[in-house]
Amino acid sequence: RLEEEKCKPLPHNFEEAITLTGVGWFHYKLLLICGLCFMAVMVEIMGVSLIMNQMECDLKPTLEQQGILASAGFLGVVLSSHAMGFLADTWGRVVTLRYAVVLSVICSTISGFSVNIWMLIVFRFMTGFFISGCQACVFSLCGEFHGNGSRVRHVTLLSGFMCVAMMFAPSMAIGILPLQIHMFGMHISSWRILLIGDVSVSVLALVGLFIIPETPKYDLIQGKDELALETMRKMFAQNTGRPSSEFPVHRLILQSGKSGASLSNVHGFCDAVRLIWSQTVPLFYRSRVFHTLNICLIQFLIYGMAQGIFMWFPTILDVMGSRENGDSLMCTVLQSLPPANTTDVVGMEHEEICHIDVDVSTYELMVTIGGCFTVIFVIFAYTIDYIGKRNLIMGWMALTIISLVALHWVQIFVLVVICLTVTMAIGNCGGLVSTVAMEFYPTNINAMGMCFIMMVGRLGAVVGSNVLGRLFFSNCDTVLWALLALVILMSVMAFFLPEQRRKLSSLSTELPVSAAVTAPTTPILSVLSSSK
């Protein structure tokens, strides 16, 4: 019997096993698919801000209705994020994403055929409601296929697809909005074609979701050890080009000792409520409550500030660029506008409008800005392990502080655009904060944690897009000083973000690998030592 025990292969924990699969073709394919999912969220929500002027002829919205429309997608994301996190942790990351993307594609396509403004608002809300799964579940999906050595870099690269979306959506607008389209003897408004065209990203993401498996970490938490091992063998074969039979891992053990929740345990409404509660409460355990609240508040402020500026960015550029005297202070220009101008931009007499000319210069500038942001994220991805997530966040916030101060005195139009862009780019820090959260929450509540903080972030985007723009036109100087104070506050809060300590490599030289990995988080080591 002793000889049988010796011949039995030693078990590996998840971190050891996933590291042995390597990083290669499978992970690059995974990054593209997850990136398309994340892009789909941004394109669907951002696409509405690009059609505001063009859809006036058809739907004749009031200013208030346009404000509701701008927030509808974000509100849908806010209301469904908690449910999406619950489903991802209990039903599976991939399955949840597949259904979410299918339903969002249907709703988005129908919105392109809206006959009135309220139909458009309702279906954009439903699109946001279903597409929300793609904004947070993808971080868990991507991160759980990686070991500690490559996880942070790939999740940061995944966040960079937000910037790719900032190039894609305006590029689609440049190519489609100026068109005069006639089919079957009818005139079809180009903004409808744009909304339907934006669905292409979601369709590509959906195709990709059907060619990747469930994460092995989720399967392991659910007690499906053999399925998790089979997935790792396929990853090993795709990454190395070697047969899956050569994968050196034959047995897996659960590190945390905690199994995940499953929808198979739900037999009624009360069971569902108890399961949702059991998945939510751990986010606020004494050991996590400070970090959870800190992350949520930072995300709320980041997305509120970034989206609030982005939503009104084209309008501000148009107003600044139309000044005959050229360079001037941004606040002087915005506050000199009569109150009617801020509404007349979007509330003109519809009876006199039958066609609105499309100025693509603003979209071209947005494409350029998206390209710059993409480069920034690539730099982040390849320096984050050396500089640290907290240091990168605080460094970018320092640049934001400089830009906000400069906006009080800079008069040259190009410099105003640069400072405003850097300020708006604080949204990039949202991806870094999401990376921090993804590492902080354990697997059994990871998707719930990610969806919860992203829900709070999108709530900030709703508040920012409705409040910040209007204040810019009435109290610009006060708003800039208030934003400066908030960024300083966020810099202090960022200092207290949890940072995973990367001392595993040094531990592994002194202890067996399994002990080095599990010692900080599980009681396995003490059991082994007592048995000796």
TrEMBL record:
Subcellular location: Membrane
UniProt KW tRNA processing keyword: no
Lineage top rank: taxon: Eukaryota
Entry GO MF terms: transmembrane transporter activity
PROSITE patterns reported in the protein's UniProt record: MFS
Pfam family, one: MFS_1
GO CC, alphabetical: membrane
Membrane-spanning segments: 30-52, 67-87, 99-119, 125-143, 155-179, 191-212, 293-313, 365-384, 391-409, 415-438, 450-473, 479-497
Cross-referenced InterPro entries: MFS, MFS_dom, MFS_trans_sf
Domain Major facilitator superfamily (MFS) profile, residue spans: 30-502
Membrane association type: Multi-pass membrane protein
Keywords, sorted A to Z: Membrane, Transmembrane, Transmembrane helix, Transport
Name listed for the protein in its UniProt record: Major facilitator superfamily (MFS) profile domain-containing protein
Taxonomic lineage: Eukaryota, Metazoa, Ecdysozoa, Arthropoda, Hexapoda
